[in-house]
Design brief:
about 280 residues; two-stranded antiparallel ribbon; mainly alpha; about 70% helix
Amino acid sequence: MKKNETTSKNGLTLKEGAGYMMGDAGNLFVLTYISSFLKVFYTDVLKIAPQKIANLFLVTRLWDAINDPMWGNIISRHKPGIHGKYRPYIRTLAIPLALSELICFFDFTKLTQNETMLLVFAYITYILFGMLYTGVNVPYGSLASVITDNPDGRTLLSTARSIGAGIGGAAPLLIAPMIIYTKVSDSSGGTYNVANAGGMFGFGVIMAILSAASYFFCFAATRERVPSDADPKFNMKETYSSMFKSRPFIALALTGILISGQLQFNSLNQYLYKNYFCNTNL
């Protein structure tokens, strides 16, 4: 490693900080677009009833209770290889995750008008996206602990991650409304905005490319220095049974539910601006 690439105290290079930053940008490019605009796609493009969409998001959140520990178990059992323990997941799942985000915005009405079939497509594609996102996000979140064991270095990585999240989260929220909506007139002469299937898919392509590129840069720019062995003693049954006996976990779970509810509520702002104010550029 070149001396001019390494900071004097924490052993991190500028390239590693930038790489870790872009890893979370990759997360948020796709997650923010999905979280903020997928409901609009379901109602405006696929024409799925809102109450059925609400059930879809409830089922997927319940599935996460199984999916997240399952990924944690898989990753904890993985033995470090030539590229480390966590970085290979980021590289391997980067393109599948990007494609899963893209297929969520595919206009399946071109294939069928049956609402049941459209709902099945929505369940499959959204659950697939959630599973692949967890498969990338869990090892990414653990990566900082093996890049450096220096407290100052980890603080810098945390700061870099926050910056990356800001970049990845801002792009869809600021740019997408200018691309994905079409203004139409109603029978009374008024105007309102509806989602444009082509625009939503096209912007999804942009987010997918940016996400995958960010993950690949994160993989290439970072190194796992701190030894991390596989943990074959992890027991899923014991983990689930102990979770509900842990007060800190229960408090954390309730907090997560409230935060998730807030995020879902905030996503309804898209309907406020496009249907009430009739201006999605506000």
